[in-house]
């Protein structure tokens, strides 16, 4: 369970998100909102990339007071990932596995099904946008996150890769990981019901 208490995110004087009290159970959520509503800001705040005021508790533990745990519990996948061009995919994967504390069979599985094995030995600067997106998704599944936050996970993926990704998401959810995903592109899961959250007037609402 996530509990938001006086959660407030602003840039300079501009408030983007403000929720006095809000709760979210484990699940798979589709986060909607118009351009600029605050979807990426919300995911980045939850994952520890952006600071925020107030607090968010995960199963009663404050994220603001436990920043290391926050980074282990929440993995964030960017909409348009960028990496240093001079690193290989494998160097990035080894680094993320190290900081996220654990190798991951799922990352290996995704590397295989996304047909990224040989690309991992190449420098990221040579990747197409779809390859960068696949690498980013592989990195996002590293470690043992309780929540995975995916910003536009489907963009630039080919049809087969979208199906693989959705199946992996379902399987991970059944194994205990929750998801929040933004997507301007509709998607359906085969066996798990997704719920929808909308950002309206700087607040998140379950609809
Ligand atoms: N680093 C930043 N510095 C200042 N303002 C920012 C920053 N990041 C986002 N914003 C502002 O916060 C607001 C929400 O942006 P955000 O990227 O979260 O929207 P979004 O819902 O993800 O939009 P989109 O659907 O276009 O991706 C926007 O007004 C944006 O200009």
Automatic annotation (TrEMBL):
Keywords: ATP-binding, Nucleotide-binding, Transport. One of its GO terms (molecular function) is ATP binding. Gene3D superfamilies: P-loop containing nucleotide triphosphate hydrolases (3.40.50.300). InterPro entries: ABC_transporter-like_ATP-bd (IPR003439), ABC_transporter-like_CS (IPR017871), ABC_Transporter_VariousFunc (IPR051782), P-loop_NTPase (IPR027417). This is ATP-binding cassette domain-containing protein. It comes from the Bacteria. Pfam families: ABC_tran (PF00005). PROSITE patterns: ABC_TRANSPORTER_1, ABC_TRANSPORTER_2. It comes from Rhizosphaericola mali. Residues 2-207 form the ABC transporter domain. The keyword GTP-binding does not apply. The keyword Membrane does not apply.
